[in-house]
Design brief:
Helix content: 25-40%
Distance between the termini: 51 Å
CATH topology of the largest domain: Uridine Diphospho-n-acetylenolpyruvylglucosamine Reductase, domain 3
CATH architecture of the largest domain: 2-Layer Sandwich
Pfam families: CO_deh_flav_C, FAD_binding_5
InterPro entries: CO_DH_flav_C, CO_DH_flav_C_dom_sf, Diverse_Substr_Oxidored, FAD-bd_PCMH, FAD-bd_PCMH-like_sf, FAD-bd_PCMH_sub1, FAD-bd_PCMH_sub2, Mopterin_DH_FAD-bd
Protein name: FAD binding domain-containing protein
Largest sheet: 5 strands, antiparallel
Oligomer: single chain
Number of strands: 12
Shape: globular
Strand order of the largest sheet: 4-5-8-6-7
Keywords: Oxidoreductase
């Protein structure tokens, strides 16, 4: 770990004022500190924002608001979250370990970096870490890598389970810098790698994530998060699906579907949603809709199993909801 200066701002305004070039915000630290130890990240200044008043969790008729410093554990166990948005609670409870969930914050979770082994090894080239240096994953070890949204520069998978659920729910992030506050839909916040994989999101220099808003959606009570991984705990997804259905009797009036573990960002599946609407909630309908899940996929040499796994995970999630 390289030398850095440390400060603990007492207000959001102080944090923004101190956020100069080379500074990094420290919340739970479960990602930043790891990457600093690996010399993947080397901020010149660390701004500890853990004491800022950004931990609110509120639910009302407009939907859900969660402050950026609320812990994963607090959100997962919150009664209004588990009742009105079960996919959020389930996504969080299937993430990391209980100890990490107690420390990690929602803002940090949404901004966590990829777990690609090449990115996390400074001895290896990586276009995310050093633009233009290359992407060894394309021809190397790529079993866990993305099949959707990839480019000739990067195939790193987005790591957050929570972001998949929030994308399905049309959530937005609230961002603040010295010039003011803005809100960006989470689906638009993350960027595809294209030729600039080092640009992962629309966060501006010095800008701070202050919270997340989830619109009111009465039928999100019928939602689920299904995660498929190599082991049952403390493991990232090979594929995952966040799904919600609005059932009117036996007919699907509306659907929200997003996938993780397969995309360079949380991946909304509008073609699956369209194929479900207006049809009965039956296994054969689910299979027909799931056939669209991996459209546009570009598997790599070692992850050719992912398109079929994604389709089966969609079917599994829908059967759970209909059952």
């Amino acid at each position: 770990m390289r030398a850095f200066t440390y400060a603990a701002p007492s207000s959001v305004e102080d944090a923004l004022a101190a956020a100069g070039d080379g500074a990094a915000y420290l919340a739970g630290g479960t990602t930043l500190v790891d990457l600093m130890k690996l010399d993947v990240l080397a901020p010149s200044a660390v701004l500890d924002i853990g004491g800022l008043p950004l931990r609110d969790i509120r639910y009302d008729t407009s939907g859900l608001y969660v402050g950026a410093l609320a812990s994963m554990s607090d959100i997962a166990s919150h009664a209004m979250v588990s009742i009105h948005y079960p996919m959020i609670s389930q996504a969080l409870l299937q993430s990391a370990s209980s100890q990490i969930r107690n420390m990690a914050t929602i803002g940090g979770n949404l901004l966590q970096r990829t777990r690609c082994g090449y990115f996390r090894d400074p001895a290896m080239p990586c276009n995310k870490r050093t633009p233009g240096s290359g992407c060894p994953a394309l021809d190397g070890s790529n079993r866990t890598h993305a099949i959707l949204g990839t480019s000739g520069s990067c195939a790193a998978t987005h790591a957050s389970d929570l972001a998949v659920a929030l994308t399905a729910l049309d959530a937005s992030v609230r961002l603040r810098d010295r010039s003011g506050t803005r809100t960006v839909r989470l689906e638009d916040f993350y960027l595809l790698p294209a030729d600039t994989p080092h640009l992962e999101n629309r966060l501006r220099p010095g800008e701070l994530v202050t919270g997340v808003t989830v619109p009111a959606l009465a039928w999100a009570k019928r939602s689920v998060y299904v995660k498929v991984r190599d082991r049952q705990s403390y493991e990232f997804a090979l594929t995952s699906v966040a799904a919600a259905l609005d059932l009117r009797g036996d007919t699907i009036a509306e659907a929200r579907i997003a996938a993780g573990g397969v995309g360079t960002k949380p991946w909304r599946l509008p073609a699956v949603e369209k194929a479900l609407k207006g049809h009965p909630a039956r296994p054969e309908v689910f299979e027909q809709a799931a056939a669209h899940a991996a459209e546009g996929a570009r598997p790599l040499p070692h992850n050719g199993f992912k398109p079929a796994l994604l389709r089966q995970t969609v079917i599994r999630a829908l059967n759970r909801l209909a059952g």
